[in-house]
Specification:
The complex is a heterodimer of chains A (248) and B (305). In chain A, a hairpin with a 3-residue loop joins strand 9 and strand 10. Chain A contains six helices and twelve strands. By secondary structure, chain A is of the alpha+beta class. Chain A has helices at 2-18, 105-108, 111-116, 134-150, 210-221, 223-242; strands at residues 27-31, 35-38, 45-53, 58-64, 67-78, 81-94, 97-101, 159-160, 162-164, 168-175, 182-192, 195-208. Chain B has one domain (2-141, 155-291). In chain B, strands 1-2 form a two-stranded antiparallel ribbon. Chain B has a two-stranded antiparallel sheet with strand order 3-4. With 305 residues, chain B is mainly alpha-helical. In chain B, helix 3 packs across helix 9 (242-265), helix 4 (80-107) runs parallel beside helix 8 (214-236) and helix 7 packs across helix 8. Chain B contains ten helices and five strands. In chain B, 53% of the residues are buried. The chains are: A alpha+beta (248), B mainly alpha (305). Chains A and B meet through strand 5, strand 6, helix 4, helix 5 and helix 6 of A and strand 1, helix 3, helix 5, helix 8 and helix 9 of B. Strand 5 (67-78) of chain A pairs antiparallel with strand 5 (298-303) of chain B.
Chain lengths: 248, 305
């Protein structure tokens, strides 16, 4: 993986120097792979993001998974038992969120642009779909971020982007085994004087492949047939397993 | 070695799952309970989402119970007539149960319901069975004690639709097993259990069936109820993970065969006492979890789009 990406980096550097197809306004970047394939043995994956800048500046990268509707429950004690008591529904929660930066984010970008480009878990601009006071929305939103971090779906701290010399940069983005499927968006921002001066967006697809894709696809599209097959499979397995014991 | 479960969308160690299946299958063979009441909480404990754990356990039960029934049937310990009467109620109950499950899932209270149901049911049953089996064991120590009547007569014997169940040596109203079946069907859908842990004691104490035919007959009806639940869960909630089921079955069906043979060597009272202990242990654990302050007060649920 790393050797291939290094090769790609070299190639990329060569292209950038000749001013070929990679010419862009300020920043160019790409991923070592645009597909994360979830197979039967999937335990997580990492993707290398690499690129080059025109002139000096810092780089901030945001990786955002497809948006989902999520319900945040707060447990409360009712009659001595912990139950799901209050809930707030958020309509536009990224199912995965990670930030990478070449230096601490608040040192290189002003709060205004950070909010505008939704950089950092404080700037997700979560929208409630259920009635909630601003205070509730803030509390439940903060809890959502904490829980997603615990699950590894929101990166806890900004990842480090390393510069190789003046203009080449790279970082490795890790995805846990429970990574949600869908089309991700990787945004790369060039930051100068605490503001974004240039940016680029690259898609990244996380998808089940092979047997697992077939199973989950079938379960969704042909749920009745899937249910029937699941039952039949279990019956056959149960019958087969009793065969060796027949003579006993 | 890890394996990715396509519906649960998590990776699990395949040997942990196999071991879990084998252990639960063994118990299922010994006691004639599907073992779902242990399997579902354990799956949730190792990180399978609760709805998937419930639905996949039901699927696993189909195979495990079939394997168990075959083993009991070879020894003539299955009352088919009783099994099918129970089944009529069971199917109706499971349809209602899956509907209830979907409704509770939408309310966000499904996990609470699952836990509370377990605690109440297992606690009550465990105590009843424990007391009864200890009394029976003590009675046997004293020789010459008065011979007990086959079963007590009460209001249940005044119900209409009297039917003869030859294998069980019973002449009772068919409404009793049907009603029992409905209750078990609902439990099966909500808890992902075959309901054996309710059915077995109810068959012994309520219907008065001989202990020997109880496990086989109970498993017989569990096959069909679990099959129905699996289908309905797959169709309505899309929560059956076939890969998870197959791995669990692989361990489970073998465990069930060994369990059945082991169970033959134990006497009825001992069997019931052991089952009571196990049931109480699970109930105590779940009750404890309900009342202690959870590590996190927040729960996130994602809507599938």
């Amino acid at each position: 993986m790393s050797r291939r990406s290094r090769l790609a980096l070299l190639l990329f550097a060569a292209l950038a120097c000749t001013g070929g197809p990679a010419r862009a306004d300020g920043v160019v970047a790409d991923l070592s792979s645009h597909l994360i394939a979830i197979t039967t043995g999937f335990t997580g994956a990492s993707v290398v993001l690499f690129g080059a800048t025109e002139g000096r500046g810092d780089i901030i990268t945001v990786v955002r998974g497809p948006e989902r509707e999520m319900t945040v429950w707060r447990k409360g004690k009712v009659a001595g038992i912990w139950v799901n008591a209050e809930a707030v529904v958020f309509g536009n929660v990224p199912s995965f969120y990670a930030v990478a930066a070449s230096r601490p984010v608040d040192e290189i970008i002003a709060p205004g642009p950070a909010a505008l480009y939704r950089i950092g878990t404080g700037n997700l601009r979560l929208q409630t779909k259920s009635p909630a006071t601003p205070d509730e929305a803030a509390r439940f939103g903060a809890a959502l971020v904490t829980e997603q971090k615990r699950e590894g779906l929101f990166a806890a701290d900004p990842l480090k982007i390393a510069f190789l010399g003046e203009r080449l940069f790279r970082t490795t983005i890790g995805f846990p085994a429970n990574v949600p499927t869908g089309t991700y968006i990787v945004e790369v921002f060039l930051v100068r004087d605490r503001d974004v001066v240039s940016g680029q967006t690259t898609p990244l697809v996380v998808s089940k492949v092979g047997l697992d894709a077939a199973v989950s696809d079938f379960a969704t599209r042909q749920s009745a047939a899937y249910g029937a097959i699941a039952v039949v499979t279990a019956v056959v397995a149960g019958w087969l397993a009793s065969l060796p014991f027949r003579s006993v | 070695m890890d394996i990715y479960l396509p519906i649960a969308e998590v990776s699990m160690d395949v040997f942990v799952l196999l071991g879990l299946g084998a252990a639960v299958g063994f118990l299922s063979g010994v006691f004639g309970v599907g073992g779902g009441f242990l399997l579902t909480p354990l799956l949730i404990f190792i990180g399978v989402p609760a709805p998937v754990a419930v639905a996949s356990s039901a699927n696993q039960l189909v195979g495990a119970s079939l394997s168990g029934v075959i083993a009991h049937w070879r020894r003539g310990n299955v009352d088919f007539k009783m099994g099918f009467v129970l089944l009529v109620g069971g199917l109706a109950g499971s349809v209602f149960g899956v509907w209830l499950f979907t409704w509770l899932k939408r309310l966000g209270q499904i996990e609470l319901t699952i836990s509370v149901c377990y605690v109440v049911l297992l606690g009550t049953l465990g105590f009843l069975m424990g007391f009864e089996s200890v009394r029976a064991l003590l009675r046997q120590r004293r020789p010459g004690g008065a011979r007990r009547k086959l079963h007590q007569h009460n209001w249940m014997h005044g119900l209409p639709l009297k039917t003869r169940f030859r294998r069980s040596k019973l002449y009772i109203s068919a409404l009793l097993p049907i009603g029992l079946g409905v209750a078990v069907g609902i439990l099966s859908a909500i808890l992902g259990v075959g309901g054996g842990f309710v059915l077995v004691p109810a068959m012994i104490y309520m219907l008065g069936m001989p202990t020997q035919v109880v496990p086989g007959t109970s498993l017989l009806q569990i096959i069909f109820v679990a099959a129905n639940v699996t289908f309905l869960q797959a169709y309505t909630n899309r929560t059956v993970d076939a890969v998870l089921t197959l791995v669990l079955l692989l361990g489970g069906v073998l465990g069930a065969q060994f369990g059945t043979r082991f169970g033959m060597r134990l006497r009825g009272e001992q069997l019931r006492f052991l089952l009571a202990l196990m049931v109480l242990a699970v109930a105590a654990k779940l009750a404890h979890d309900l009342t202690i302050r959870p590590p996190s007060l927040w729960v996130i649920s994602t809507e599938q789009t």
